[in-house]
Amino acid sequence: GEALEVTGDVNCVIDFIHGCEDQLQKLKKQKDKGLLCGVPVSIKDHINCEGHVSSGGMVKFLGQVKEEDSIIVQVLKSQGAIPFVKTNVPQTMLNYDCSNLIFGQTLNPLNHQKSPGGSSGGEGALITGGGSILGIGLDIAGSICLLCSFCGLCGLKPTDNRISIDPSACSDRIFVLAVGMLGPMARDVDSLALCMKALLCEEMFQLDSAVPPLPFDEEVRLRGNPMSPFAQKQS
């Protein structure tokens, strides 16, 4: 309901992922609930979800319905998360704004005269507007970082290949030379840490053997960066 209200205001949702209710009912019956049990997660347009289109803001992909979930969506579901919407991107996703000729312009909920940033602009607008608490985007040169700055959110661009970005996760071979990193967005850092902890699990490592099997290190996060001036003063 809140996602509908937000997208009616700023035009950030492009599709609602069917089967959410069924997934929630299955989750209630499972013994192992997962770290993201019951958490609704919004997904950037280009990330594949079974039965849905990954357009990348381009007309040529509108007829190509995907037959399976990308690895990150599979892992999110196994951890109890409920992917429930796909969100808007700029055409080709290579832009710091968020508009295309299919779904139109996404606005910044904080100021409708401003852009939410890009390319994961639909994610930023939806989370900022209160329609989602956790989102997944992709960053090559600011597509998570920039929109989080514009929208007042927290985001993480992980190290290359820390999270699986299998070929099925993109609407086309758009990124041949530039490598994108999938990462979470939320209103606070703790939510990002929980999402990364959930994603860096055995299932992720088994589904994509190219991802180093290194689990999330909570101690490193709590220690902070030992090279920062503040940390050096405290030591």
TrEMBL record:
Pfam families, per the entry: Amidase
Q: What one GO molecular function would you report for this record?
A: amidase activity
Superkingdom per UniProt: Eukaryota
UniProt record, GO biological process = fatty acid catabolic process
What is the recorded name of this protein? VDHAP protein
Q: Which gene encodes it?
A: Vdhap_1
Residue ranges occupied by any Amidase domain in the UniProt entry: 8-218
